[in-house]
From TrEMBL:
Residues 24-41 have a biased composition (Low complexity). Residues 24-46 are annotated as: Disordered. The keyword Signal applies. Residues 1-26 form the signal peptide. This is Uncharacterized protein.
Length: 397
């Protein structure tokens, strides 16, 4: 039974490639490399960075069962990611850089150096926004996108999705993931005391040190997209007791992934498409569709492609988003942007062609003759999709 489905599991997974040969980053007292030339970065002399690192090594969490549980639920492997980031700033390629989206993210890391990765990995700070979102959001009115530019659109889409599908979505809550949460003392102290058993004073000191470091222009105080480069659906429905965290059904939308989609020209439809895909996972949870599959890579690919199909059906349907023509092309493309790199390495999410074919199939189903105005039960869409899946998965399908 899977308890979460992330949009960019692709990134997390490909990061595990090649870790055997990568240095154990967290224990490497690396020499700072030349930093990029933002004014405030120049304030961070080698000496100052080293002093910070020394203090962080004393303060750094030694490990925590709670964090281990969250990482398992979220598919996060901090050490593997650190190794991947290290390769990225070395000028070598992301495993994922064959997509425009991952190429864009790579570009956003051009001015990071090894010390940055060391500091942010050692402390777990790269994942603080994700943990905060999973554990505590929404804890009040939400905004989506760094400046709330996606709030109206996503709240409307969420309401439409809830009415569209014939499953009870009334218990699903949507929340935002902002890297800037790291600037919020109260939320960080709440998070770090909970995760690591710190005293409030220890949590505040660690928060202060990281906040200070993130003042450098290149991190935008945490609004750099890497801190929130994901969206995910979470449910404990059917999960074994030891895997349950007591968290209700939720969908989390990260600023970074929304920004990235906008940067590659998909800002018009990708936010709705990502949300519809995550909602598709909630439909799968409600219908028990994950139970039909063993938890291997092939099963994950099938449920991911099915979530694409459910999303595509909703996006095209006259009673859903009613997208047409180029906009259908755009959401089909947006699914390809987030999934393929993982598949290329270990068969995880589906190739761009498979994802496109799933969405295109759903577009046809939503606009079939005589279907106008009638929304099929989600279970029927699932059955029909699984009937054509072998064709979609066939070579050269
Ligand atoms: Zn997914």
């Amino acid at each position: 039974m899977r308890t979460r489905h992330t949009l960019t599991a692709a990134l997390a997974l490909t990061l595990t490639l090649g870790t055997a040969s990568a240095p154990a980053l967290a224990s490497t007292p690396a020499a700072p490399t030349a930093t990029a030339s933002t004014t405030s970065s120049e304030d961070w002399t080698d000496e100052r960075s080293r002093a910070l690192l020394e203090r962080l090594q004393e303060l750094a969490p030694a490990g925590s069962d709670r964090v281990d549980t969250l990482n398992r639920a979220l598919g996060i492997d901090p050490q593997a990611r650190a190794a991947q980031l290290e390769r990225a700033i070395d000028g070598s390629q992301y495993e994922c850089s064959d997509t425009e989206l991952m190429g864009w993210l790579d570009g956003q890391l051009a001015d990071w150096d090894l010390v940055d990765i060391l500091i942010l990995s050692l402390t777990g700070a790269l994942d603080w926004p994700t943990y905060d979102a999973l554990l505590f959001q929404p804890d009040g009115p939400q905004h989506y996108g760094v400046d709330g530019e996606h709030t109206k659109e996503l709240e409307k889409t969420f309401r439409t999705l809830t009415a569209f599908w014939d499953v009870d979505g009334s218990d699903i809550r949507m929340g935002a993931m902002h890297g800037s949460v790291i600037q919020d003392d109260a939320r960080m102290v709440r998070l770090l005391t909970f995760l690591y058993g710190y005293t409030p004073e220890e949590a505040q000191e660690l928060t202060d040190l990281i906040q200070d470091y993130l003042q450098q222009d290149k991190f935008a105080g945490g609004d750099h997209p890497l801190f929130s480069f994901n969206a995910f659906a979470y449910s404990e429905e059917g999960a074994p007791p030891e895997a349950q965290l007591g968290i209700g059904d939720k969908i989390i939308m990260g600023d970074g992934i929304l920004e990235g989609m906008g940067a590659i020209g998909l800002g018009d439809v990708a936010p709705r498409g990502i949300l519809a895909h995550e909602y598709g996972h909630q439909v799968q949870f409600e219908l028990g569709l994950f139970d039909d599959h063993a938890g291997d890579a092939e099963a994950t690919r099938e449920t991911e492609l099915e979530a694409d199909a459910l999303a595509g059906y909703y996006l095209s349907h006259p009673r859903g988003e009613r997208l047409r023509n180029q906009r259908v092309d755009a959401f089909v493309r947006s699914f390809g942007e987030v999934g393929d790199c993982s598949f290329a390495s270990d068969g995880h999410h589906g190739t761009p062609n498979q994802r496109s074919a799933s969405a295109a199939w759903a577009d046809e189903l939503a606009n079939a003759k005589g279907a106008k105005g009638h929304v099929l039960p989600a279970g029927t869409v699932s059955d029909r999709f699984r009937a054509v899946l072998p064709e979609i998965l066939a070579p050269d399908a």
